[in-house]
Please model this.
Amino acid sequence: MSTQTTPLTIGAVAKRAGVAIDTIRYYEREGLLPEPSRRASGYRSYGESAVAQLRFIRRAKDMGFTLEEIRDLLALSADRQRGVKAVKKRAEQRLMAIEQRIAELQRVRDGLAQLVSSCPGHGRPEECPILRALSDEEARA
Model:
């Protein structure tokens, strides 16, 4: 049984990882994905590790991590001494930021719901509570 895998093209990697080809090139430029080897023809040649790394990046993005945070997570994933503890700390920080954003969105939703319920949906624009709230200088502060 051979442990060597068939080299993958950028298109095959993109399809298997669920990302666009341009995304792969961007991650290479940003240092999130190592520069691939090149075939004699000059085409990029990838291994299975590239697919796994791209899936990691995509999932981390889906959880709200920034590219800089993902770069840190990738580095920490190789750190056998402090990696897991540091990854947990980064995830706790991301969770706290998400919870703050949810609280902010709920506040905005509640305010908008109140405006919608107070608007009759007819009449003169200057009497519309939604338009008044959006125009009111004090409401923006």
About this structure: The chain is about 60% helix and 5% strand. The chain has a mean pLDDT of 88. The first strand starts at residue 37 and ends at 38.
